[in-house]
Amino acid sequence: MNPKVTFIIPCYNLAHFLQECVESVLSQTFGDFEILIMDDCSPDNTPEVARSFADARVRHVRNETNLGNIANYNRGIGLARGEYVWLISADDQLRSRHVLERYVRVMDENPRVGFVFCPCVELMDGAETGVLVATRPGDGDVVYRGTDFFDLIVRRNVTSPDGESRWFTVEAPAVMVRKECYDRVSLFPKDLPHAGDRFIWSLFALYYDVAFLAEPMVRYRVHGSSMMQRLISDDRARRIFGDEIAMCWRLKERAEEIGAARAVGSCDRAIVREYLRWLDQIEGTRITTGHFEESVRGFARDRREEAKFLALVYAGLGDYLFWRRELPEAKRFYMKAVRRGLRTLGPRAVKCLIKAALIGMGGAGACLIEAASSVGRRIALLKRSGRPHA
């Protein structure tokens, strides 16, 4: 008889953490599971640690050659016999003995839910340092409609009732997935190593609802071998940029295929935000407008779509540079937006022309732009809060 849940524990050079991870699973109050330790041909003593567990539910699977993270994940998913699959790295841990019981209950009671997750607590040098705020989209348990969660995760931030915006992410160790999601929708994409997690959670939300449990029940370990280098090369930055942009375009294509108009709009906005973020993201690296234009040309289906995204991003750059009081540069990008997308921007092209003209008036014109923007932001905030603004 197949187990209800399969835990997949990928392990490469993490034998020193493996025992704590496995024991955190074995201590669960819900016991109908199997554990697959996916040893990616690790050169350390992973086999010895894996064989030390006197529990028939624990199975050591050693790859003949090193497959790399994504292929190792996918191999484990292919071997999983459970109805639900939980992928947790050997250096992470379950924090609550009841987390699996709660996850299974919410999945069993909500057959339209594709995956469930919770916030993570950061673990550093063996001690908890606090809840990772970015992993908490809200304060209470909730089952999101898939379209709502898709917008949330693609947008990459959540907005509190008072209008404050903060970063949002879903960490893989805190996610349990209905196996049919992998079987029917997709495995992890091998060609998006820097954005595969967010891509797969977003993709599942196009087809399934998503459950969130607000209690932090998973520990996410931060250590030297798990953290991305603080200072990265231009080449590496561009590879990450390429993955994250490709993810957005690919999600847009899938949303168009299934006729999910709202999700297509979310992807359009996400594409613009990602380009803007990367054009001024990392100190010491350069994602240039040349890289940006080359990327848009590579993904856009036709000249009209190309012009649309070039214009939207240049208009956004104009706003950003205006905020930084780099007024001549702001004016230059407003005009680039108009030239690139006069026919696709519609009323926004007129706004860009007006902003450029006002900047040309000097300080008084800039003050007018600022006042109009302030009023617009206030009206938008009041609309989100549901209060009348008259």
Describe the fold and architecture:
The structure is a single chain. By secondary structure, the protein is of the alpha/beta class. The protein has 2 domains: about 5-220, Spore Coat Polysaccharide Biosynthesis Protein SpsA, Chain A; about 235-385, no CATH class. The protein is built from 14 helices and 14 strands. The chain has helices at about 15-25, 45-50, 70-80, 100-110, 145-155, 180-185, 195-205, 235-255, 260-280, 290-300, 305-325, 325-345, 345-360, 365-385; strands at about 5-10, 35-40, 60, 85, 95, 115, 120-125, 125-130, 140-145, 155-160, 165, 175-180, 210, 220. The strands form 3 sheets. An 8-stranded mixed beta sheet has the order 3-2-1-4-12-6-13-9, with helices on both faces. A hairpin with a 2-residue loop joins strand 7 (about 120-125) and strand 8 (about 125-130). The radius of gyration is 24 Å and the shape is elongated.
